[in-house]
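Reopening: Acyl-CoA dehydrogenase still failing for me.
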Amino acid sequence: MSTKSSGMPWWEDLQTDPDIFTPEDLSEDEVMIAKTTEKFVKQSVIPDAERLEQHDYQAGEETFAAAGELGLLAIEIPEAYGGLELGKHVAGLVAENIGNGGGSFSVAYNIHAGVGTTPYIYYGNEEQKQKYLSELGTGASVGAYALTEPSAGSDALKGKTKAVWNEEKQAWILSGEKQWITNAHLAQVYVVFANTEAGMTAFIAEKGMEGLTIGPEEKKMGINGTSTATLVFDEVAIPTENVLGEVGKGHRIAMNTLNLARLKLSFANMGSAKRALELSVSYGKERKQFQRTLTGFPMIQEKIANMNIAIYGIESMAYQTASQVDRALEANSEEDPSRVVGQFIAECATSKIQASEVLAAVSDEAVQIHGGYGFMQEYEVERIYRDARISRIFEGTNEINRLAVAKSLFSQFQSQESERPTGLNRNATFIDEAEQRFFEILKALVDIPREDLLEAQEFSQLTADIFNDISIMRAAFLRAEKAGAGATLKQLMTDVICEEGYERVEAAIIRLWAAVVANPGKMIASIRERPNVPEVENLIKKKREIAEYVIDAEKYCT
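Support: Ran it again with your exact input. Result attached.
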């Protein structure tokens, strides 16, 4: 499967056996890892949730140590340095299961195992890997990532922190401030980005270095169980052996590390959404109003169905994307990982956007289903709702990620024609028509001068939203096709995703045509005529059927 713009039109693989990875393809060993993670959350995270929320650093250290003992911190670390070297889809599987009930620790875990560890894997030299990876993999050290500054949030590469080479000390003198650093008080080692004469450079700073101080804990809306504070560097001497990667090439480390972090975050968000759905169904089956359980009301059933469908869509896409990245890195193991990972900017950003917005919607509906109780802190959905809000902001705001998706599409687009397939089934026809219309508008967009195109951020936002919907439609469709005729629930959910997804795509494309060309009437009329679009079906009925499956299972199900 390919969702790359350079491969458009994408039609061909709608008719072939899908060579994709889905959760149903997890091996027995991988399923065991998932169960181990789930058990870890129940035994080591949930019981200490209150201590973590009160910034009990000993509790945090104990939780990381417990995760390290089980190997959960070493999933992506190479075997040569004590790791399991299992790849992105397994790392995602663990992140998902920690997100499912793990609360704030899920964020701390993702920072440590993601941006706090992967820079050493891909950019560290042999000495750095030997020194840091084994301790990060066992939990003996906790990792953090210091990029954001008070004056440089979304514009992360414009930070003011500087590093100047001091010949006498044979060290880089680091001065500046990094803001909102997750794991700040728990971490022993930080990946820090600073400007040098050669450009942005990544450095390894260690707790206890003279001149490095950690500010007080931030008072946050949510994720209160994570340590979040400012790091202040007052002429901290960083030895030359603590330069990570090449001097002046730190921007590559920063952007590609964030790219992979976005993918991992999508798994964690998915896990939290599953937890919110499970709590909602459980509460809805117990709570009675007007002599009926809440789950007996059609409007509640529709909410439950929509929650399950949305999670299914992002789950399908996230696992397929992680597998694609794994395959690409394995096939190009001798190449610069920055180049390989850079090919998946649109996919990783899309996964992050979709998963964080699915979590937002699902957690909101979870509170709604709980009614007044959902607003009370003794109910878990209240915390999930608050914790969810940050996911649309960190690892790049969703606005920044939408711009990244669009920029990637605009830069890779090739105006190549190919013969459209015939004999497609209903859902494939929705996808085919959406892609054809998208292809047409992209041709018009890339003819606009690049500077003007990127300046018109509304164009980028709509383009990214179209790509997001098509990606979800494709992922769900290919997963259902792979599952075969007996996968009734998958087919029902795919039916809804493809029909509703097409509706959104069509509306966005019409809005773009109205803005891009002077006289869009003819093109808009041809879209609205829908000569190739299937007739609408009774989605109300299908959602009721989907809800029945979920209510019977009392949790997310496929």
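Residues 250-400 form a domain with the Butyryl-CoA Dehydrogenase, subunit A; domain 3 fold (CATH 1.20.140.10). If you still see a failure, please send the error message rather than a screenshot.
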